[in-house]
Amino acid sequence: MGLANNQPLPNIIDSQMVAILYTSGSTGKPKGVVLSHRNIVAGAESVAEYLKITEKDKLLAVLPFSFDYGLNQLTASLLKKAQCVLLDYLLPRDITKSLEKYRITGLAAVPPLWAQLVNIAWPESINQHLRYMTNSGGKMPKNVLNAIREKAPDSQFYLMYGLTEAFRSTYLPPEQLDQRPDSMGKAIPNAEVLVVREDGSLCAPHEPGELVHQGSLVAMGYWNDPEKTDERFRPSPTQQQELPLTEICVWSGDQVSMDEDGYLYFIGRKDDMLKTSGYRVSPTEIEEVIYSSGLVKEASAIGIPHETLGQVIIVVVAVDHFERFDETKLMQQCKSQLANFMVPARIIALAELPKSPNGKIDRNSLTSKFSEILSSNT
After folding, report:
1. Dist. CA 128–CA 109, nearest whole Å
2. Torsion-angle region of residue 352: left (phi > 0), alpha (psi -120 to 50) or beta?
3. Is pLDDT above 50 for 1?
4. Which of 12, 57, 114, 264 is the most exposed place for a label (fewest CB within 10 A)?
5. Where are the alpha helices (DSSP H) in 194-308?
6. Has this prediction a pTM greater than 0.90?
């Protein structure tokens, strides 16, 4: 069959470009990640395999398709002939209503959205049809995870980790959730994940290193940006010298560790690490303590430039009721659970935290805003 003007259809092979997805820009200017047909199909096959998606499933798509995590809801549905319900929601309650209306079996969301869904009523019929839920796009706070699981106790919850440059990298099987609640899991099908030192050698168990992803999901590079491509897309650290062609991997920039059983644990992004009083601090570790207090709905630890400390740590939180927010109690919890150099200098409460187009907390926006405000007050 030809096109409308009788031109023949182009001859497409799986290694050719099919799409450009732009990163959220949470750690800098957004970059255009070039994906091939093979990347898209392999990503759908891999995720559909461990989520056990079949033609009987109904997935609720609430994330934008410009987000690789959101796009995968559609591609996995097409691959397995499942139904994909598109929802451009206004309020979180629209999501829970749609779960019941369409008898959804699979729901994917990011941590800020899960934090909103915790505070509303879920339909009583949810356990009759909701088979699984997934999280990616950031670490899931433990209190939010526990509360969501209570909303749908018969549903399996998958913690996942991914980066746009490799679509999806790891997942934690639901049966491991209670045993390893802090783990990112293991590599997804069709991928291998390594933890390496600065020199490219493999790390020992529990030794922090950079996560390197290799396999069929590795993207083609950054659109029109050879310099950034060379930084992130580099030869495999396990490349056999006898192979004439170089295998390219994604060097994620994320600091992780791996235990003796091969399970991975997120430490923080190289770009995100705060530097104060000569120490390197993971904002995720601070945010976990903030969330565990149950006093806030969202939190982001940021570093503000400081002449002597390098950076001073500020935590910006979102709360529902300012009159009930107990900042003193929250600061006391930080002091009791964090090392002195990790305790925030200030806690600032807002009604909502700014979000990127993908629904993640916009850490860059907060840093820019409060760097300007705090410097003007000194």
Report:
1. 20
2. beta
3. no
4. 12
5. 226-232, 283-292
6. no
